[in-house]
Amino acid sequence: MRPASFASALVLAIGLTASASAEPLVTADWLEENLENPDVRVFEVSVDVGVYERGHIPGAVHLNWHTDLVDPVKRDIASREDFQETLRSAGVTPETTVVLYGDNNNWFAAWGAWVFDIYGLGDQVKLLDGGRKLWEAKGLPLDTASPSHEASTLEIADRNNALRARIGDVLNVVENGSDVQIVDIRSPDEYGGKIFAPEGVKELSVRAGHIPGAKNFPWGKAVNEDGTYKSAEELKAAFAEIGIDGSKPIITYCRIGERSSHTWFALKHILGYDVRNYDGSWTEYGNAVGVPVTNLAGTVWTGK
Amino acid sequence: MSGRRRARGSALASSFFVGQTMTETSPSASHSAVSPLRIAVALILLVGLGVWAYTLHASDAASRALSFSLLTGMAFGIVLQRGRFCFFCNFRDFVEKRDPRGVLSILTALAAGTLLYHVVFLAWVPVPLPDRLPPTAHIGPASPVLALAAFAFGLGMAIAGSCISAQLYRLGEGSPTAPFALVGAACGFVLGFLTWNPLFLSVISEWPAVWLPHHFGYTGTLAASLGALALLALLVLALAKPQPSAPAETPTLSGAFHRIFVEQWPGTIAGIAVGIISMVGYFRVAPLGVTAELGSLARTAADTTGILPETLYGLDGLRGCATMVKEALFSNNGLFVIGLVGASFASAIVAGQFTPTRPTSGQVFRGLLGGALMGWGAMIGLGCTVGVLLSGIHAGALAGWVFLTFCTAGAWLGILLIHRFA
């Protein structure tokens, strides 16, 4: 290699690494270049069973959404001890750049990013823009071997509850007028109360509708055709259309908190807004007793 | 009973129980029997299926899985037809004629698949941790209800003349029983849906899904499985009687063509091929099974009548050929079965074994009754000889061995009953 081209390659490589450390998203091309980088650890968070095993991005570690990111008994995110153990066995250190990706439009990978953030690793975590779908669409390689990494001694922080909204926080907005904007990222039919849950998903709430005052911003409005996030400018304009401009704290929610993690990621990491994810979401709020509900369609549960 | 009535009853019974052998065909000894027309029909069919698989194959994983399922089904159909890989017929040959070849073919398939599955497991789940199971492998609960379901399945396949996978490949041979056996199986599935909830709540839910590597590790499971299969093979060989066999020929072009496309493949070759297809299918898409689509069709049809329970408890959380109400026209399992039937039909045409005949009332009755028993057993047991016995034993599931034991017992009883009444 000639000195000039070597130098430009070096500059490019440094630039790529630098861009990875500064930006919340990495591109498939960047990731392909960095698969051998020992400071990059890739995790797949796919919700469909067997997807990871039948072919994942080479070297990616499996984070099982059902067991590694949530508490398998009570409805909660994974405990600090369990999550720390998972990351240690994957060899994550404070210097590691963590890249998350997954199936289903990266929803569960974004949930993973939120959990990483809650445990103080937000600055280290990136999402693969476009997720598994784009990686496959570009014909990039997949691997079926289980990676093995030398365990680390990572210590993660206690939960940062400032990133998480609980039902009390939401009621504080609805009933006490706390100056927070709520964003419902479900489909217009769920938001409007015509349906209790999207097609193919169990109806796990006994009331339809939305949290009073919530603005509807279906999650898909934040992405392009290929599943990548829209640019910061486009996102800023799209949210501004429904009156969300970052001047007030925001709470995002959906049905179980995973789709809203995707929007939470855009608001927090791409736009830098003050935003919390309400992971109880409609399956908690829509079942809670005595809470105010706006049901535009007037659908009555099991009623004719 | 008077003598006349007894004679009439016996004639009726023999028309019920003897007709099945008509579907069996023996390969012709002639080397020049294959007409170009038959080859052309088979080629058109296979190429058509191949083109379909090619067009299905797109950039997303779901389309690739559909395409691969169709191709795997075709491979499975050809091997079943060419190798006469029929669980029941092979077992009956051994019981009635002491011919060990078919049973050895099944044992070979179980051994080869077990070995190959472990290659996949060691890549995917290097350490069999207590709370983890290999993804999507058919490791269902090994309960007394499974034993009962397997027994019913075994009895049903004796009455109908073969199990569900063999009925599917025999559909491609023009079997007069197969369509009725499949209709019967669909009805049996509906009976399964109606009885699932009480059986699940009272029994199945209390029994764990036992994965042998959790208890013996991979080495222990492999050693125990292959050891048990070797013992069974020894037992079969010890009880076997010499069978007439064709003299070995010097290989020639026409001879080789005949041996591949017309004569029955050697059991060990078919067995190894089944083991390979099982592993390849699991590696790329899902464990082999032939009843999920049939069950889903039955469930979708019955769902509209409102007789089914709205929820089948626990089915989401159990491994095996679980059924669901259909939402998409083509599923992986549906295309697998279409490939199986289409390719076995092509294979049968070339071999001159597509011999459709008008069904007798006995064949209709046996097909429906045997099919219903098999359908009920396959729904309650979460699979059949392919989904639980083959894919289960390959995966190191105790349930596979339970199915093998009780299905064999049921088939044995079925053979005894048939001899008694015929």
Describe the structure.
The complex is a heterodimer of chains A (304) and B (422). In chain A, helix 4 (107-118) crosses helix 9. Chain A has a five-stranded parallel beta sheet with strand order 1-5-4-2-3, sandwiched between helices. The model of chain A is unreliable at 6-20 (pLDDT under 50). Chain A has two domains: 22-158, 3-Layer(aba) Sandwich (Oxidized Rhodanese, domain 1), CATH 3.40.250.10; 164-285, Rhodanese-like domain (Oxidized Rhodanese, domain 1, 3-Layer(aba) Sandwich), CATH 3.40.250.10. Helix content of chain A is 32%, strand content 10%. Chain A is an alpha/beta fold and 304 residues long. Chain B is built from 16 helices and no strands. The interface between A and B is medium-sized, with 17 and 16 residues.
SSE blueprint:
The complex is a heterodimer of chains A (304) and B (422).
Chain A: H1 3-22, E1 25-26, H2 28-33, E2 40-44, E3 61-62, H3 80-89, E4 97-101, H4 107-118, E5 125-128, H5 131-137, H6 167-176, E6 181-184, H7 188-192, E7 215-216, H8 232-241, E8 250-253, H9 259-270, E9 275-277, H10 281-285
Parallel strand pairs in A: 1-5, 2-3, 2-4, 4-5, 6-7, 6-8, 8-9
Chain B: H1 3-18, H2 36-56, H3 61-83, H4 87-97, H5 101-124, H6 144-160, H7 164-171, H8 178-202, H9 212-239, H10 253-261, H11 267-284, H12 292-303, H13 332-351, H14 361-380, H15 385-394, H16 398-421
Helix pairs in contact in B: 1-14, 2-3, 2-13, 3-7, 3-11, 3-13, 4-5, 4-16, 5-9, 5-11, 5-15, 6-14, 6-16, 7-8, 7-13, 8-12, 8-14, 15-16
Labels describing this entry:
heterodimer, A: alpha/beta, Oxidized Rhodanese, domain 1, 5-stranded parallel beta sheet, 4-stranded parallel beta sheet, B: mainly alpha, 16 helices, disordered N terminus
| SSE pattern of chain A | HEHEEHEHEHHEHEHEHEH
Total DSSP helices of chain B: 16
The two chains with the largest interface, and their residue counts, are: A-B, 17 and 16 residues
CATH topology term of the largest domain in chain A: Oxidized Rhodanese, domain 1
- As laid out across the biggest beta sheet of chain A, the strand order is 1-5-4-2-3
SS-derived structural category of chain B: mainly alpha
Helix and strand composition category of chain A: alpha/beta
Order of helices and strands of chain B: HHHHHHHHHHHHHHHH
Radius of gyration of chain A: 20 Å
Q: Flag low-confidence runs of chain B.
A: 1-30
* CATH level-4 homologous superfamily of the largest domain in chain A: Rhodanese-like domain
Q: Into which percent range does the helicity of residues of chain A fall? A: 25-40%
Number of domains of chain B: 1
